[in-house]
Amino acid sequence: MIRTGQGYDVHQFTEGRPLILGGITILHDRGLAGHSDADVLSHAIADALLGALGLPDIGHYFPPGDPACKDINSLLILNKARDLAHERGATIHNVDSTIIAEAPKILPHANAMKDKIAKALSLAPNQVGIKATTNETMGFLGRREGMAAMAIATVDLP
User: Fold this and answer.
1) What is the 3-state secondary structure (H, E, C) of 107-139?
2) What is the pTM of this model?
3) Helix, strand or coil for residue 19?
4) Residue 84 is inside which H or E element, if any?
5) Which residues have a Cβ under 8 Å from the Cβ of 70 and sit 6 or more positions away?
6) Predicted confidence (pLDDT) per residue in 93-140, tens digit
7) E strands of the chain, at which residues?
């Protein structure tokens, strides 16, 4: 059975943290606040996969108050989503995502992010889509208060 899931994540910018997206550190004046490494892209993709599998969201597996999850590398969250898919005999066909932020520019980092995400999910890089857009200066994203990501995933469940 072919199934599709969607994921969404958002984090506020904060001073004194690196900006991590898709498992890579991007030079920027601020990072994202969160209990983990706050990688909105990886979180959205993980939730999309979990949704396609009919499972609870990442907060179920990585509770925000759990000290063991403090500053966790979100590629490990993607590994968990992959493992849960494989435990169910599912095949991950692809993931596609959009990052929403006024800055920084995403395109120069997209291939490196695709490589990291693909490796974490045991996919080929061409099975990972990463796009970016702005919020046209509207709302909290447009005011550069944070960053969001949306994702979908397609899996085949036996």
Assistant:
1) HHHHHHHHHHHHHHHCCCHHHEEEEEECCCCCH
2) 0.97
3) strand
4) helix 74-87
5) 35, 36
6) 999 999 999 999 999 999 999 999 999 999 999 999 999 999 999 999
7) 2-14, 19-21, 24-26, 31-32, 91-100, 128-133, 146-156
